[in-house]
Amino acid sequence: MAKPIIAIKTRVTAYAALVNLGNRVVASLTGNLSYATPAPALAVLQTAITDVVNAIAVWGPRGNRGSHASLVDLKTKALTLSQTIKSLAQYVQNTAQTAAGSDYALMAAVITTSGFQLSNPKNPQGTLQMVQGFHNFVSRKLNANQVKMKWKKPLNTASAGNVKSYNVYRGTTSVFSAAVQLASTTKTSFIDTNSTSASVSWSYWIAPVNTNGVGVVSNAVTVTVPSM
Questions:
Q1: What is the Cα Rg of the chain in Å?
Q2: In a domain, 124, yes or no
Q3: What ranges in 101-215 are assigned the alpha helix state H?
Q4: Which of 6, 36, 179, 209 has the fewest CB atoms within 10 Å around its CB?
């Protein structure tokens, strides 16, 4: 289980939502034995909430807004409330971690009694499938003795960040077990150069890599590369 992290998604300009979050935290932390010494104190948070509520009333409802000065005052008080809530969130995070240590399930349970919500846990990607569209890319920008391989991310990639890198393999036959790893790259292309004095036939493979290790190896692409 990943370490639970508090998520505060309420924008500073979402005044009513910010007040609701503050009220929820006050209600949840009041008398909560897991958080005996809130910092900042709950009285400070309550004052910040009241200030925003009053400033909202002065600014007025939509269609009958108050002055620009009242809006500036509301924004200032909302920022103070937001910062107070964030400070309390950090206190809750630290207190829960001290109480639970490396027991992340317990830590999550303690945090959820505070009125704060946890960020959505990242789902493990699992083993990556083979890359898509692996091919030899023909370009006039390449030298005659160069070959460029291109591919696309695997089909089952949950997000771009799930692929940490790609291993590039090359062999003199189409048997993968006889190939050697040429490089590890974060790009979806690779340029190889034939520095010998004779034309060669090389086979290439690509394997995506993530935190779960090396994924499924692609099918081979065989290319004849002229000499220098």
A1: 29
A2: no
A3: 104-111
A4: 36
SS3 35: helix
Q: Which helix (H) or strand (E) holds 70?
A: helix 68-100
| CB of 196 closer than 8 Å to CB of 227 | yes
Give the CATH number, domain containing residue 201.
2.60.40.10
- 10 Å CB burial of residue 164 (0-12, 13-18, 19+) is middle
Taking CA atoms, 12 is separated from 15, 45, 85, 143, in Å, by 7, 15, 11, 55
Q: Which domain holds residue 199?
A: 132-225
- Give the pLDDT confidence of 187-206 residue by residue, as tens digits: 999 999 999 999 999 999 99
- Under the banding of pLDDT at 50, 70 and 90, the label for residue 120 is confident
Beta-bridged to residue 203, according to DSSP, are: 171, 222
Residue 123 inside a domain? The answer is no
